[in-house]
Amino acid sequence: MRQRRISGIVHRRGPRHVLMRGLLFAILLLFCAYYLVPLVVMISTSLKSLAEIREGSLLSLPQGLDFSAWATAWGSACVGVRCDGLEPYVWNSVLMTVPAVAISTFLGALNGYALTKWRFRGADWIFALVLFGAFIPFQVVLLPMARTLGFLGLAGTVPGLILVHTVYGLAFTTLFFRNFFIGVSNGIVQAAMVDGAGFFGIFFRVVLPMSIPAIVVTVIWQFTQIWNDFLFGVAFTIGDSNPVTVALNNVVNTSTGVKQYNVDMAAAIIAGLPTLAVYVIAGAYFVRGLSAGAIKG
Amino acid sequence: MQSANRFGARLERRLPQLVVSPLFAVSLFFVYGFILWTAYISFTKSGVMPNYTFDGLAQYQRLWATPRWYVAIRNLFIFTALFIAISLAIGILLAVLLDQRVRIEGVIRTIYLYPMALSFIVTGTVWKWILNPGLGVERLVHQMGFESFSFDWLVNPDYAIYTVVMAAVWQSSGYAMALFLAGLRSVDDEVLKAAAIDGAGPWRTYTGIVLPMLRPVFLSTVIILAHLAIKSFDLVIALTGGGPGYATDMPATFMYAFAFQRSELGVAAASATMMLMTVIAIIVPYLYSELRKTAE
C-alpha cells in the first residue's frame, strides 16, 4: 500500500483515487483552456467580418472561413501613413534577424570555446564582465547607442539593428556555449592538440561538429529574442525600416478610419507565426534555452 | 626562418586571448562605456542635446519632483509584486500537478509554455482586444444574461495597471511552471520514499519536504521574474500605450518617453541610471553566488 504512494499525491485505488485523479485532470485542462483561449480568440476574430464581430461575441466562432482580413493585414493595412500592409516589415525583420542570429551565434561559439578550452589567465574575469551585459536594462544604453548609430551612418537602418542585436546578443550566446563546453571533456581537445591541430583546426573540425545541440538551442533563443524585439526597433528605426513588431503596434494604433479588429488579429498572427512555428517544431530546444537563460551557471 | 617560427609559435599561444579580445572590447565599449556615458549625462545640464557641463544632482532632483515618475515607480511595485506572486502560485500549482505521472504531460506542457514564444506586442494586441470595453469580455458577460456587468479596466486609470498584470501572467506563468517542474524532477525518489514510509500524506510531503528543498528554484524564479518586470516595456506599450494619460507608465516607458518624445535627455538618463541601480541590486549578488557555485 505504502509503496504505491511514493511518487505522487494519489496512488491509492478506489473511488477516492478516481475522484482525485479526475480533479487533477480537471484543473490541468482548465489551465489548458486559460492558455489556449486567447489564441483561439485571435484566430477566430481574424476570420470574421466586421459585421460578425459587432453582432457576435468574443467566443462565437466565425460563420465561414473568410481570409480577407489576412490579405488586408499582409498587403494593404495602413501602418502609419503607408498602406502596404505588413509584408515589407516582415522582410525587414527577416533581413535583420538572419544575419544577427548567425553572427552572434558563431561568435558566441568561438568565444565560449576560447574561454573554456584554452583557459588563460583572466578568462573567468572576462566572462563575468561580458555576462553582466546580458542583464542590464537596455534603457541605459539607448541614448549612447542612438548617437553611435548616427555617427556610423547607420541610424534608422536595418544594418544598424543587426549591429545592435549582435552586440547585445553576444553575452547570451557566449553564456550558452560556455555552459555547454564546460560539460565537454578536455581530453578530446588535448588529443587533437597532440595530433598537431591548432586553435582553429580544433574549433572547426572537432568542437563545432559536436556542439550541434548547443547551436540549435542558441539559434532558437536568439531568433526568438531578436524577432520579438520591440525596444530597439522602435528606438532606432523610422517608418520604412521598422521591424514587424513595431509595424504591428502601428497597425493596431492607427486611429484613422473604422477600427478593423479582424485585421489587427490577423496582423498579430502574422507577426507571431514565425516564433510560434519554431516553438512547435523545436519546443524541447526552446525550453532548454529558457532554462539556460535562467543562468543555470 | 627560426625567428618567424618563434613568432608563429607565440602567436599560436596567444591566439585564444586574441580571439576573445574583440568580445572584450565590444563589451567594454557598448556596455560599460555606454553605461558610463548615460550615468555622466545624468549629472549634466543636458536637455534636448547632450551638454557636458557638470550640474551635480539637478537632474535627479527634477526626476524625483516629477509626478509622472512617482506613478511609474508605484506601478512598478504593484506590477512586480502581483506579477511575481501570481506567476509563482500558478507555476508551483501546475508543476506539482504535472509531476503526478500525467500521461499526456508533454502536450500539456507545450500548451502551458507556448505564450513565452510570442512577442509581448502580440500578447498585448490580443489582450487589448479581449479586454476591449464594449466588444470584449464585457459583451460576453452581457450576452450570458448579466446586463449590468461593467468591465472597463483597460481604460480606467485606477485599474489599467491590473490589465497589464493579467496579460503578463498569461505570458510568463508557464515559464515559472517549467522552472519548478525541472526542480521537482531533480528531487531524489528516495526522499519521496522516505516521506511515504514515515506516513506523510501528499500535502505534508510537498509543503513540508519537497518545496522547502526547492528554495534555490524559488530564488532564481523570483529573480528572473523581477528582472522581466523591471524591463517590461513592450507589453505596456502594446496594451495601454502607458495610458490612459500616463496611468500605466513604468520606469522603462517613462525613460523612453523622456528620451525620444520629450527630448529631456538629462532626466531620461537619470531614470535609466535608477533602473540600472535597481537591477544591479538584484542581479549582482545572485550572479556572484551562482558563479561561485560553478567554480566549486
Number of domains of chain B: 1
Please, what is the oligomeric state? heterodimer
CATH homolog superfamily of the largest domain in chain A? MetI-like
Number of strands of chain B: 0
- How many individual β-strands of chain A? 0
CATH class of chain B: Mainly Alpha
Look at the structure and give the CATH class of the largest domain in chain A: Mainly Alpha
Number of helices of chain A: 14
Low-confidence stretches of chain B: none
Number of helices of chain B: 13
Which strand-content bin applies to the residues of chain A? under 5%
Helix coverage percent of chain B: over 70%
Radius of gyration of chain A: 25 Å
**Global structural class of chain A:** mainly alpha
Q: From N to C, what is the helix and strand string of chain B?
A: HHHHHHHHHHHHH
Q: What's the CATH H-level homologous superfamily of chain B?
A: MetI-like
Q: Any idea what the shape of chain B is?
A: flat
Mean pLDDT of chain B: 86
Estimate the mean pLDDT confidence of chain A.
Answer: 85
Give Rg of chain B in angstroms: 25 Å
Keywords:
heterodimer, A: 297 residues, mainly alpha, MetI-like fold, 2 domains, 14 helices, 71% helix, disordered N terminus, B: 296 residues, 13 helices
Report on the architecture of this protein.
- The complex is a heterodimer of chains A (297) and B (296).
- Chain A is mainly α and 297 residues long.
- Chain A folds into 2 domains: 65 residues, no CATH class; 207 residues, Orthogonal Bundle (MetI-like fold).
- Helix content of chain A is 71%, strand content 0%.
- Chain A is flat.
- By secondary structure, chain B is mainly α.
- Chain B has one domain: MetI-like (MetI-like fold, Orthogonal Bundle), CATH 1.10.3720.10.
